Amino acid sequence: MSTRTLIRGGILVTASDTFEADILIAAGKIAQIGMGLIPDDQTEVLDATGCYIIPGGIDPHTHLDMPFGGTVTADDFATGTTAAAFGGTTTIIDFCLTQKSRPLSESLQDWHRKAEGKAVIDYGFHLMIGEMNEQVLEELPQMIEEEGISSFKVFMAYKNQFQADDGILFQTLQKAKEYGALVMVHAENGDVIDLLVKQALAEGHTTPIHHALTRPSMLEGEATGRAARLAALADSQLYVVHVTCAEAAEQIARMREMGHRIWGETCPQYLTLDQSIMDQPDFEGAKYVWSPPLREKGHQEALWNALQSGQLQTIGSDHCSFNFKGQKDLGKDDFSKIPNGGPVIEDRLSILYSEGVAKGRISLNQWVDLCSTRASKLFGLFPQKGTLAVGTDADIVIFDPSITRVISVETHHMNVDYSAFEGMQVQGCPVTVLCRGEYVIRDRQYVGNAGAGKYVKRNKYDAGAPIPPRQPVTAIHGGRN
Ligand code: URP
Ligand code: ZN
Ligand code: ZN
Predict the structure, then answer these.
(1) Higher-confidence residue: 225 or 464?
(2) Which domains does the chain have, with CATH numbers?
(3) Each residue's pLDDT tens digit, 123-158
(4) CB-based burial label for 197 (10 Å; 0-12, 13-18, 19+)
(5) Measured from the CA of 155, which atom of ligand 1 is nearest?
């Protein structure tokens, strides 16, 4: 294998610029960017004419090999990261679950064992905080300083399972401020949802659509606003995962307008699918059970507007795959037992390009920012990852915008028996993907190695760097500007 690779003829796209240039990779890093670079004998030349060259995607929200809802996700770190690579993602940040009364370090070791020897692209971990006590307080700084974990996740829903109370959330925010970490929240009002679910079941409502009907958007908006206010009170920083609705986007926008460090992520499924598909016969709707749930179609425009205006900043996949047969059917007679989540890791960049860039909703540079650069900055990976610059990791995707394909379970690489986007035609396709200069996907074929992916220790959250732009709240309601 040649130690140097020269990619010629493509158009480089970063979060800020679009320009024609050659790009030379040496020893896993970007060594040179410029016009008319001359290869030596040791250099392999790759023609990228007609393609975009973008920084490898960074997926800040995945669940691989994760026990949940009485089963374990269908994708592990081998299949999940392989599918991610096919989709143009070269780094994931996966959620490490923790358990009460158990040292955080033990849970973290579990997650390292799940990934080591399997991951084909690079990975980091967020750490779930489910309790606050002397032991957790003692371990938190070590997690940041020694383990390179600069983001903590608090669940405001999933009562009696993962849900933490407001006191735990507030203290996590305080500690994050003190030590330099970003707090992530699953923002839904878990107590009220629990009550609504019990009431629906008592009335005999058991089908998948009732998952959505018992988790109204108002409860996501309420929890998002509450978390954002607690973050403001602690003068801390908050990242709201999987924002699905106008109410939540509006809360984030308002608090940002006031100058608070509040960030929001949405996911391809909330931008393209709506609640009506959960009401299909024969339990089909179970394929689309996510929490928070898919919303009525009108929310999609609010989310696109929020992405366009910068009020939501990242796209996560929230990849959490379960087979329709043998896993989703655990909830055949009771919607509350359907494992929550779906397969998205492979389709994140393609859907955002096709539905976003190709349809004129976002720019090429916004696409790169949303799918890579912003997550890199927020989660302490920048500038090592998430951009194209001399000295950065050569995590590079060659993306051909002229290819049209149809998403299907027949052709995807996720280890799951259905596609949530079955039949969706997408324009553009990642054709070649390199992680630290090594090919993982070449001409749409997998050529990577299990275990080649490395754990990335992340830097602390930098409160100084990402200053929220002050933008009018009204933008999320109006048409596109
Ligand atoms: O339904 C979902 N989102 N499953 C994954 C777990 C979570 O809440 O992110
Ligand atoms: Zn969640
Ligand atoms: Zn998730």
Answers:
(1) 225
(2) 55-386+459-476 (3.20.20.140)
(3) 999 999 999 999 999 999 999 999 999 999 999 999
(4) buried
(5) 8
* pLDDT tens string 235-293: 999 999 999 999 999 999 999 999 999 999 999 999 999 999 999 999 999 999 999 99
Per the listing, tokens 């950065």 go with: 392
Q: State how far the Cα of 156 lies from the Cα of 161, in Å rounded to an integer.
A: 11
Does 320 sit in the ligand 1 pocket, CB within 6 Å? yes
User: Residue 60's closest CA among 122, 12, 139?
Assistant: 122
Q: Is the CB of 63 under 6 A from ligand 1?
A: yes
pLDDT number for residue 3: 81
Q: How crowded is residue 58: how many other Cβ atoms within 10 Å of its Cβ?
A: 29
Q: Which amino acid, one-letter code, is at 426?
A: V
Q: Is the CB of 155 under 6 A from ligand 1?
A: no
What's the N-to-C CA distance of the chain in angstroms? 49
Amino acid at 53: I
Note the pTM of the prediction, 2 decimals.
0.96
CA of 155 from ligand 3 middle (Å) equals 10
Atom 9 in ligand 1: residue holding the nearest Cα: 318
pLDDT in tens, 280-337: 999 999 999 999 999 999 999 999 999 999 999 999 999 999 999 999 999 999 999 9
